[in-house]
Amino acid sequence: MTTRITIVGAGIIGLATARAINRRLPEAAVTVVDKASTVAAHQSGHNSGVLHSGIYYTPGSMRARTCREGLQLMEAYCDENQIPWKRCGKVIVATREDELKRLDALRSRGLENGVDCTKIDRQALGDIEPHVNGLAGLHVPSTGVVDYVSVCQTLARELNGHGKLLLNQGVRRIERRSGHARIITDGAQWDSDLVISCCGLHADRVARASGTRSGIRILPFRGEYWKLRPTAAPMVRGLVYPVPDPAMPFLGVHFTRTIHDDVEAGPSAVPALSREGYRWGDINLFDAMESACALRTWKLAARWWKNGLGEIHRSLSSTQALQSMRHLLPELGAGDIERSVSGVRAQAVDRDGRLIDDFLIEADGPVIHVLNAPSPAATASLAIAEQIVDRGLVQLESRED
């Protein structure tokens, strides 16, 4: 009997999971369904395109393990499918004396994660990035860039002949039945032996629509980018990042020379008024009220309100945005930057208002939920997909028992 598997979500994790199923269960009938009209409509298509090295993540965490493996798998996949990518390297820069100890701690973490990272002094930093201000840095040569939309489009083409891709069909309900689940969309319904939800910004809602009592909720944060004008872009050769502050929830402003040879600066991290709100004017009253009325939102705000106000100020003020960029690139002037793209990060938050730091995948009967997949999920997607399929096989075997 053919095994029927439905994947909800045509972003990079959903499409990578479809590929992994087809490789490991070639007899399965795979359906990928998404409410959008294109693949990679949201997080997978609205990011800086970085191929992450894995230096930042807690050793032993799922993020650390899958990032290193996923980076190698993604590079190989791009080579096999002639998708342009580039290993341009990155410098992580300490601009103050009090950041030097954090730089050393980050290097130790990187080495523990198996990342090639070398501490460099001011002169060596200047050789790599002549316009960057810094006392010292870490050089991470394995970091690269790619266009993840191209990756998703290739994964979708690969699905043809091995499964179905159904777009413009939002999932309304998933009914769990004896040994299987029924998917009910805007215009159709069908049964599956296994459902895998890779819904990003709507992961918690799809979980609730399947009857899963998850303790997390998604709060959307918009990341706004600026772009260096062509006359200023030569100031950045590769990727330039600040030393992360472990007490802060987000990384801070950094510079990325993309696969298309633009230089982006950002992102900000401001609360979005819609789960698909890429501008301040994008307001969904239901999304906004759901976030505003949640106790966990206020618990989160109590911890980070000062930082949040700073992010909002930077979002609204080009002067403030420029000041944050000049921390690393002091030669930048007001005429050197212009507003660029935005993305919305699906951040899972627990009942106590704490940000979920690691990837979070939960199985509930015939349904598997990817409930949190922050950066470096795109880099790690092919490795994450293998872990999802491992869990799926366990669920299918338990159903047969």
**What is the number of helical segments per DSSP (H or I, 4+ residues)?**
10
Give the number of DSSP strands: 21
The fraction of residues in strands falls at 25-35%
Q: Flag low-confidence runs.
A: none
Would you tell me the overall average pLDDT? 95
Largest sheet: 9 strands, mixed
**Distance between the first and last residues' Cα:** 16 Å
> What is the general shape?
globular
CA gyration radius, whole angstroms: 21 Å
Q: Which class of the largest domain in CATH terms?
A: Alpha Beta
Task: Characterise this structure.
The protein has 401 residues and is of the alpha+beta class. The protein has 2 domains: 4-45 and 149-216 and 357-400, FAD/NAD(P)-binding domain; 86-144 and 220-349, D-Amino Acid Oxidase, Chain A, domain 2. The chain has 10 helices and 21 strands. The strands form 4 sheets. Strands 5, 6, 7, 14, 15, 16, 17, 18 and 19 form a 9-stranded mixed beta sheet that branches. The chain has a 6-stranded mixed beta sheet with strand order 9-2-1-13-21-20, sandwiched between helices. The protein has a 3-stranded antiparallel beta sheet with strand order 3-8-4. The longest helix is centred in the last third of the chain and has 24 residues, at 377-400.
Quick structural summary:
The chain is built from 10 helices and 21 strands. The chain has helices spanning 12-24, 62-80, 100-112, 122-128, 148-159, 203-209, 285-292, 295-316, 318-326, 377-400; strands spanning 4-8, 29-33, 50-51, 85-86, 90-94, 118-121, 136-140, 144-146, 163-166, 171-177, 180-185, 189-192, 194-197, 217-228, 239-242, 254-257, 263-266, 270-271, 337-349, 360-364, 367-372.
